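With this grant's support, we have settled on a layout for protein records. An illustrative entry appears below exactly as we store it:
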Amino acid sequence: MSVAVLLLLGLGFVEADGKCLFNRTQEYCVCYHLSQETVSSLIQCLAASVVEFRGGELERYVAFPISDLDPSAIEMLGSLVIRKIILGDLLVPEILLARVLRFFSYTQVQELVFESCIFEGRGNWEEMATQDLPILSLRFHNVTSAPLTGREQDFSHLSGWLGTLQELAVTASHVTSLPCGIGRVFRALRSLDVAQNSLRDESLVSAFCSGAFPQLQVLSLQRNHLKSYHNVCNSVQLLHGLQHLDLSQNKLMADPSSSCQWPASLRIFNLSDTGLDEVLAPLPPSLEVLDMSCNHLHAVDISLRSLKKLFLSQNMLRAVPSIRNYPMLDTLHLDNNWMIELPWDEVKHLQDVSAAGNPYDCSCSGAGGLQALAAAGHLGQGWPQGYTCNSPPDYQGRLVEEVPVSVLRCNSAAVIAPICVALALLGVAGAVCLVGSRPRLLRPCRRV
C-alpha cells in the first residue's frame, strides 16, 4: 500500500502504541494513536461506514514524496464503503492536507469532520483547481487556523469542490468574519452552521453580501457576539431562500420602531435566550415554528396564521396567549412562567401542551383543567411531577394530580340545584295528590 493511501486512511501514525476498535453493529471504527507496528489493526476498519482517527503527529509526513496512485490503489479506494471520516486531536499541516485531499476523489466519502485540530501553515491549493470531490458535508469544531481574511484565492482554487458542498459547519472556532468572496464560492450550500464563534453585527454585512450563499436554507448564528436585532435582520435580507434561522444565545437589543422585514421564506425562527422582552412585529407570515423561550416576555400579542409550534418556556407570562391568533397551532410550551391557570377550553385541541413549573392555583377550575388535559394525553413529559400547587394554602406544594375535583366539592350548586328541583317537583306532586284525594261535595239539584 502506498504512502499516500496510508496517509489517507491512517492519518496520524506515531510511535506510541495504538489500536483500532470496530463496532460491527454500528459499522463504526475508531483508531487511537496508530503506529507503524500496529497499523495492521486498521484493516478491520475497511468494512466500516464511519472511521474516526484520534491523536497523532502529521508534521513528520510533510516531506514525504506523494506520487499519483497506481490503478490497483485507486480501485481499492473506490471499493471501500467508508462514507464518513472524523479526524480529531491532530496538528494538521495545511500543505500536507492540500496534497492528500485530492485522493478523496477516488473514494465514496461524503462527510469529513475535523474536531479539536490545529491547522498549521498555508497549503498550495492550485492542484485542487480541477478536482471534484464526493464530499458533500464538511464540519470543523473547535479548530484553530489562520484568519479567513485574505484567503479568497485559496477558496477560488477549491471552487470546483466547494461549489457542490451542501453542508458546512465551523463551530466553536473563534471565527470573526466571513469574507464576501468566500461566501460566493459556496454556490450549492444548503446549511451553514457558525455557532459559538465571535461574529459581530458588522461582520454579517459582508458575510451575506449579494451573491453569497445563494441556495442557503438553514443558518445557525447561535451564541456569537450579535447585539442588534435590526442589524441582523438587515444582514440576512438577501438570503431569499432562507427557511431556518437560529439566533439563540445572542444578547439582542431591539428597537420597537424597527420595521425590518425578515426573509419571507422563513419557516423556523429561534430567538430563545436573546434577552428580548417583547415579540417584535413584523414576522414572516408563513412562519411555522417560533422559539421565544428563556426571554423576558410578559405578554405575547401577535397573530401568525401559519404558526404550528410556539415555544415560550422560561418567560414571565401570566396568561396563555390568545390561541385564536394561531389557527394552525398544534404545539405550545409554557413551562416555568408565572401562570396560575391553564385554560382547558382554549388549549384542549392542541396535540402537545407543556406547562410545568408554573405557580398553579389549584382551585377546582385550575386543577380540573390540567387533569383533563393530562387524561386526554396532551401534557408532555413534565406531568405529573412538574405540576404543583401554589395555592390555596391547603394544597400548596402538592401535585396537581392529587387534588380532588369531585363534583360535590367543586360545583356543589350543580348537585344541590337538581336536588332542590326534584324536591320542589315532589312537593308540587304531593299537593296535587292531596287535592285529588279530597271527597267531592254533592251540589243540590237546581230546580227548573
